[in-house]
Amino acid sequence: MMKIAVLVKEVPDTWSDRRIDPATKRVDRSGDVVIDEINEKAVEVALQTKESGGGEVTAVTMGPKNALDAVRKALAMGADAGIHIIDDALGGSDAVQTSAALAAALGSRGFDLIIAGNESTDGRTASIPAMLAERLGMAQATFLRTLSVADGAVSGERMTEDGHVEITATLPAVVSVTEQIAEARFPNFKGIMAAKKKPVEVLTLSDLGIDAGDAGGANSWSVVDTVTVKPPREGGTVIKDDGTAGQQLADYLASAKLI
Amino acid sequence: MSQVLVLVELTDGKPADSTRELLAAAAMLGEPAAVVVAEPGVAKALAADLAKLGAATVYAAGVAGADALLVTPQVAALAAAASTAGPTAVIVGSTPDSREAGARLAVRLGGAYLSDVLAIDANGTVTQTAFGGSYNVTASAAKGVAVISIRSNSIDGAAAAASGTVVDLDVSSDSAPTTAITARHEAVAAAERPALKAANIVVSGGRGLGSKEKFVLVEELADSLGAALGASRAAVDAGYCEHNLQVGQTGTTVSPNLYIAVGISGAIQHLAGMQSSKTIVAINKDENSPIFDIADFGIVGDLFTVVPQFMEAVKARKTS
Predict the structure, then answer these.
(1) Distance between CA B102 and CA B115 in Å, rounded?
(2) Where are the beta strands (DSSP E) in chain B?
(3) What confidence score (pLDDT) does residue B250 get?
(4) Does the N-terminal or the C-terminal CB of chain A have fewer CB atoms within 10 Å?
């Protein structure tokens, strides 16, 4: 039976006006927050893998109280159990620290496959899956737009700048998936009701065995020094095509030495 | 002066275009040292090229079958070079391979991982943007080695030519589980078009094109300007073009000198991927499209008449 972990995360809604809190220099999570869309696709892949070969799917998140909503969404879609890493001392963790916390939570549980989105829409470092593979001594099969699991290996098409490559890795492996991987299912009413009864394990800093002196923004490897709002881009000239707009555009670009 | 390592990306066995700016970035922080992973015996042959671009040292890791292994040989080589060099910083590029090698290295060495960096100063403070360019952020390593991933086309200039002294690395003892690359499908056909991230001009098409057949118009426009081709998510979802052309929050982030949006309304998720372009041109039929709020030059009109006329005008300029 495959043991599958899927990483999920709440992020500020990309359709909303997203902010960074100037005082803390951290993402302001007080507005509209949703499970990151790519995570829903990761959950979908986890569920499809379970459905084709048997297994158990655990949705894992790290974050404050509200982050549990992302786990609940995964449970409603069909995941079997959840893990919520929550501790005020973890606030402000950078990617290196976050990967340490996730590795501590996942390392000893015997997961065959750990599935994540390739990149969150808030931090966008695209680094956690690779860091987890490094920490857990697992193979990394990342940036996959297709994925199949067979004979103890995971294979798929990895997106690159110029196209894609086919890759394959022996399990256990850390996988990350791109937007193209699948369309996520919608949770139905039964799923939403069932989710409320599914177990969610809560882990704190001491459960993870992480020293308080290594945790959180005060002890991070990288620090944000300044955050400044870029002045909104000003619109320029907008013309209505009077039959010469194409010509006018060429003149404009030529005078700006852009063509 | 302490060494700053640069992971050299290879294209067809040669240092990729990114090498110039990665070594230039390294030179701002210390003495540039290139790290190359290739088949045994091959890396050394690149030393002369790398020296010209500023590498005082070339750490050469010969790995049999290097091209068929994902990321782990590069991490091993960087770690081996770091144990010799004791670098203050490590510079990597912006491809998924380089970014992931950098991320793993930060964990292996104990250090900070600074991603998608647009500028560096001599103190090692880096500039990034957040939320699609809505914020400027400066950041730095609080402790450990700074592993810095540079966004393409961010660093001007070049490092002064250096000696390129070759130091061989042995990475055969690396124990990280590997991932095999079994086949490559990297666009040969589109090779004449510049890569989206690195392009000076980007032409993107949206749903306004109406069909896959009509999307050819933006391809022609791109080619007439020597531009990279992009697309909005709506165009990708409608099947007008390949997914890897997507510009936006969930696609590629671009900041070319000139961005031309054709038939794109400018959903916030698209703007997040292109609003830091230096000059933005938008052609769309709906005058209320949000793209016009950020366009330097906007045309409300029928793209199927404006674009051909524009291409004619550009052609006339070239020939006159």
Answers:
(1) 9
(2) 3-7, 10-11, 14-15, 31-38, 57-62, 89-92, 111-117, 119-120, 126-130, 135-141, 145-150, 165-169, 179-186, 201-205, 228-231, 258-262, 279-284, 297-300
(3) 81
(4) N
Are A103 and A86 in contact, with CB atoms under 8 Å apart?
A: no
Residues of chain B with pLDDT under 70: 187-191, 320
Contact A226 B275 (CB under 8 A): no
The Cα A232–Cα B268 span in angstroms is 13
Query: By the CB < 8 Å criterion, does A56 face chain B?
Result: no
Do B5 and B59 meet the contact criterion of CB atoms below 8 Å apart?
A: yes
**Contact: B302, A173; criterion CB under 8 Å:** no
Q: Which residue in A138, A142, A258 is closest to B100 by CB distance?
A: A142
Identity (one letter) of the amino acid at A73? K
Q: State residue A232's pLDDT score.
A: 79
Chain A residue closest to B249 (CA)?
A: A121
What percent of chain B is modeled with pLDDT above 90?
Answer: 83
Q: Which residues lie closer than 8 Å to B287 by C-beta, 6 or more apart?
A: A238, A240, B300
CA distance A144 to chain B (A): 11
* C-alpha Rg value of chain B to the nearest Å: 21
From the candidates B104, B140, B145, B188, which should be mutated to test the interface with A, based on the most A CB atoms within 10 A? Answer: B104
